[in-house]
Design a protein that fits this description.
Structural class: alpha/beta
Shape: globular
Number of helices: 16
Strand order of the largest sheet: 8-7-18-19-20-17-21
Bound molecules: flavin-adenine dinucleotide
Length: about 475
């Protein structure tokens, strides 16, 4: 298959490329240190680490440090753990993921963790079940590739173009400009599919993604293009990892006083907690909004990195129907519409509920975020009616949800991306300053925008504290 179709479903295809050499081997070691010990009562000579945020990064850092004997306290603004990991158990008899859904790669640390905690995994549909919706209707990838006169983009082409730019030039430009630079005249549908693929995968459109950042996030590791799932959902993994951790929920941190010796972390409800070290795992969007004040302010280069990186908008639309109305046995449909890509979250399960999920990123996500939930659902139903050539889908709608991560006070984003001239800022974002340490998906040079990247970033920050 040589259309964007393959590209559309192999998020990590681009990331197979080279350059930065992963830290995975070093980090894999930490899989052995997962079981946070019970905090014992004698805190007198233990150093205290306060972790802001109980998402994947915060929990991973906390479990590791507690196992190493530190006194660990996690402060979480929400009334639940998990952050951008949120498995719903109410919509269907099987889990439905409202945030992170897939484990990208067959060698990533998530599988080791799943083994450690006895969590089952499951495969998802292969390419045979992947379809495209174009102005010519629903096409199988083979049908699409066989249409005469259409200007196809090879699935590795963007990758090759980006690499050759990286090797030959010392300036940055957007992926859209890169295509223009090479005078690649794409069929409008192909261009739209490519853009939608990148937007849902990276949280930004081709015009907003920098070539150098795109290369930076490519790595030599062997994560592979495999996408799998935790059979019972992502939340159970974080629940297992956070067992025995002291997590204080509904604690909205709004002020951090810090210096080289330690910090005091303040919450909206007037708590203040002293710490020897603080790990900040706030989402980039929250950092950019300045919701937490640092005193003294973060150094200029740190603030510059926060401002320079992209907090990508990525949302989900989840529609539950009274019965399936699709006649093709698709797992995924990539589309030229604003809803970008649809899949069946229960695909392959015996108890599959009639639910469809759309993943929407970039400018399309921002357009949806500007609408009411009812308007989003109406627009999504309209898109599905066009794809499947059916009418009055609303009559079959049981429940519709718009999961607006961009509008969520405690994420303000979907996942991070590197805009033009933004490369190398992830490293600056990750650097510690005084008693403050930084983790979270946006701080990972190679595996940003993933759960396993967030976990690894937590371990990296924990390592830095242990080296002190
Ligand atoms: C729609 C969507 C789909 C995704 N799909 C995938 C996927 O298929 N596979 C994959 O690997 N990744 C996916 N991701 C990305 C993945 O979810 C994230 O990279 C990862 O969960 C980020 O973890 P984190 O710990 O860095 O941040 P978060 O999970 O955001 O954790 C940060 C925590 O800080 C808390 N917080 C915020 N403000 C405050 C405050 N003032 N005080 C205290 N606490 C605060 C938040 O509530 C949150 O719990 C997806 C993300 C989205 C949004």
């Amino acid at each position: 298959m040589s259309t964007t179709a393959q590209h559309a479903f192999t998020r990590r295809a681009f990331l197979q490329a080279l350059l930065l050499g992963g830290t995975m081997a070093a980090l894999a070691f930490h899989a052995r240190l997962l079981h946070a010990q019970d905090q014992n009562d004698d805190d007198s000579d233990r150093e205290t680490v306060v972790i802001i945020g109980a998402g994947a990064a915060g929990i991973a850092a906390g479990a590791y440090l507690q196992a190493e004997g530190y006194k660990v306290i996690l402060l979480e603004a929400r009334d639940r753990i998990g952050g951008r990991v949120l498995t719903d158990r109410t919509l269907a008899s099987h889990p439905v993921e409202l945030g992170a859904e897939f484990v990208h790669g067959d060698n990533v640390i998530t599988w080791d963790l799943a083994d450690e905690y006895g969590l089952a995994s499951r495969e998802i549909g292969d390419e045979a079940e992947l379809y495209l919706f174009t102005s010519q209707g629903v096409l199988s990838p083979d049908q699409w590739a066989n249409i005469d006169g259409i200007n196809l983009i090879d699935d590795d082409e963007l990758d090759r173009l980006a690499e050759s730019w990286y090797e030959e030039e010392d300036s940055d430009l957007s992926l859209a400009e890169l295509l223009d630079e090479h005078e690649i005249d794409l069929d409008p549908d192909v261009r739209k599919l490519l853009n939608n693929d990148m937007a849902s995968d990276y949280g930004a459109d081709l015009k907003d993604l920098g070539v150098l950042g795109f290369i930076e996030q490519s790595y030599e590791g062997d994560d592979s293009e495999y996408d799998g799932q935790l059979a019972d959902g992502y939340t159970p993994l974080l629940e297992a990892m956070s067992e025995n951790l002291e997590i204080r929920l509904n604690k909205i941190v709004n002020y951090v006083e810090w210096d080289d010796e330690g910090a005091i972390v303040y919450t909206e409800d007037d708590d203040q907690i002293e710490a020897d070290y603080v790990i900040v795992t706030l989402p980039l969007g929250v950092l950019q909004a300045g919701d937490v004040e640092f005193d003294p302010p973060l150094p200029d280069d740190k603030q510059e990195a926060i401002d320079a990186l992209g907090a990508g908008h990525v949302d989900k639309i989840i529609l539950k129907f009274s019965e399936p109305f699709w006649e093709i046995n698709f797992a995924v449909i990539a589309t030229i519409q604003d809803t970008q890509i649809w899949w069946r979250p229960g695909y392959g399960r015996e108890d599959e509920a009639s639910i469809l999920t759309a993943l929407v990123g970039g400018d399309a996500a921002k357009r949806f975020e500007a609408m009411s939930e009812a308007e989003v659902i109406t627009a999504a139903l309209r898109d599905l009616e066009a794809i499947f050539q059916v009418q009055n889908l609303r009559d079959k709608l049981v429940e519709g949800r718009f999961i607006n991560w961009g509008g969520d006070r405690f994420s303000k984003m979907g996942y991070s991306y590197v805009p033009v001239d933004g490369s190398e800022y992830r490293e600056v974002l990750a650097e510690s300053v005084g008693s403050l340490y930084f983790a979270g998906e946006a701080t990972h040079m190679e595996r940003a925008a993933t759960v396993h990247g967030a976990i690894e970033s937590g371990w990296r920050a924990a390592d830095e504290i242990m080296e002190m």
